[in-house]
């Protein structure tokens, strides 16, 4: 049995901060899966029922162990590709946060540009994770996550960061970093970058490049009528098609044609991974 499902948080309040949950299950004892996650402005908490992990450079290796404790992994915003290897049966739930969203739930400050895992990292109490995996009815699991996340919620506001993220997310206007900081927000570029590094994990410029990249991917994958890359590039404020080709190579190591050929949409949200064949 192989299951991959996505679902939105049921509580409307949480949808401000969490994009979606996903369930990833494979119960074959000999299961082995390897995939590439591409750069993205989200960050995630991955919960595994009974696994161990090795976090290598841009590579996470997760192995099933029957008597192992639940595993919790934090994956920050990705400015490079990340390879994930799963060995043995998989029982996983992922929580995909909106930008700045995870900051509303952290009980203690962690570096937001580094992967982390239990036992050093705990987002939830271990007892809650064990209880979460007592059943595999996804709606019920999502409801449990909703309740627990509402308990963890601690408001953190930063109007400068919120406004900057909103502007970067817009495809109607293109704003330079200096103009954004000094004109739109009334702060220095240095201050803006300090906020992004602290709460997002990268500079404002890097964040914008990843957002633009993901916007074009979403336009390409969800377009109602086929458009060429030139039209799509202009739509999300690349100078031209060659500009996007260069950005795609920098972020993924692939040309756009290779990227879209190798990648695969799974679930009903924006999960776009490349699987080893």
The strand order across the widest sheet is 1-2-9-4-7-10
CATH topology of the largest domain: Jelly Rolls
Low-pLDDT segments, ≥5 res: none
Largest sheet features: 6 strands, antiparallel
Going by CATH, the architecture of the largest domain would be Sandwich
Percent helix: 25-40%
CATH class of the largest domain, anyone?
A: Mainly Beta
Strand content: 15-25%
Rg, Å, rounded: 19 Å
Overall shape: it is: globular
Please provide the count of β strands: 12
Q: Give the averaged pLDDT, no decimals.
A: 93
In N-to-C order, the SSE pattern is EEEEEEEEEEHHHHHHHHHEE
Structural class: alpha+beta
Termini Cα gap: 19 Å
> Can you count the helices?
9
The structural domain count equals 2
Structure description:
The chain is an alpha+beta fold. The protein folds into two domains: 2-152, Jelly Rolls (Sandwich); 159-253, Homeodomain-like (Arc Repressor Mutant, subunit A), CATH 1.10.10.60. Helices cover 35% and strands 24% of the residues. The protein has nine helices and twelve strands. The strands form two sheets. The chain has a six-stranded antiparallel β-sheet, covered by helices on one side. A hairpin with a 6-residue loop joins strand 11 (263-265) and strand 12 (272-275). Helix 7 packs across helix 8 (241-252).
